[in-house]
Amino acid sequence: MGADLSARAVGVSELMDDPAADARMLERTYRRFGAVNAVVSRPGALYRADVRPRARRRRDTGSGRLRILDVGAGGGDLCRALAVRLRRDGFPAEITALDVDPRAVSWAQAHDRGAGIGYRCAPVAELVRDGEVFDVVLSNHVLHHLDEDGLAGMLEDTRRLAAPHGLVAHHDISRSRGGYVAFAAGTWLLAGTVLAGSFIREDGLTSIRRSYTPDELAAVAPAGWEVRRGFPSRLELRWEQDDAVA
Ligand SMILES: C[S@@+](CC[C@H](N)C(=O)[O-])C[C@H]1O[C@@H](n2cnc3c(N)ncnc32)[C@H](O)[C@@H]1O
């Protein structure tokens, strides 16, 4: 619990990013992302605040299906959680789960569970080149993986992928002592059972060490991006057009 959190630990890598990572542990990690995200990423709140209003606008204006892009989708659970809610509420939507890691894309595709998500293994720049646009471009727990140039490129590319009235929302952990201690304690209790054989605990702690504080992120974000603080120990880097649906 005595980790140095005074600055981003950019020199420390997550085990799941190792191309030689144990395949079974990686698969268990993707499988467990859903449970972790249900607690810390709160897909229901994301749906109500940012997705449903845009889906409603599409429906009310007769302008077709809502298009969502999840960048760095990992195991795809956030996409599945949004797909279930959109279907429940009768909103037609097209969701793309994008990741640069083919292992994540393969796993997510094999565990679509009828959600009907589109999977793509590519960098965001490829979608920009293809002229794709989305109503909602989001990421979750991706920013802290990126170096300075990677972050700048990600923000520029995702902003260019936003349709008129569109939103870009990069969600991540906020580096804090409280968050680190809470995650360490919570996962310690589950380390021998639910989280056994996965990278969740170790990579989660590394992620917190690599993450930005809200002030650090605001300092490197280009003009037009807004940093929001959330609970528990969350942050969001957000860009939306002036006439975007709130
Ligand atoms: C910690 S996982 C998060 C997965 C998922 N978003 C979630 O919240 O469970 C980070 C994911 O981002 C992917 N990733 C990292 N850099 C990326 C980039 N530049 N473009 C797309 N995906 C990226 C990794 O391959 C990994 O699957």
From TrEMBL:
SUPFAM superfamilies: S-adenosyl-L-methionine-dependent methyltransferases. The chain crosses the membrane at residues 180-200. Its EC number is 2.1.1.222. Keywords: Membrane, Methyltransferase, S-adenosyl-L-methionine, Transferase, Transmembrane, Transmembrane helix, Ubiquinone. One of its GO terms (biological process) is methylation. It comes from Microbacterium azadirachtae. This is Ubiquinone biosynthesis O-methyltransferase. GO terms for molecular function: 2-polyprenyl-6-hydroxyphenol methylase activity; S-adenosylmethionine-dependent methyltransferase activity. It comes from the Bacteria. It holds the Pfam family Methyltransf_11. Residues 69-168 form the Methyltransferase type domain. InterPro entries: Methyltransf_11, SAM-dependent_MTases_sf. The keyword Transmembrane helix applies.
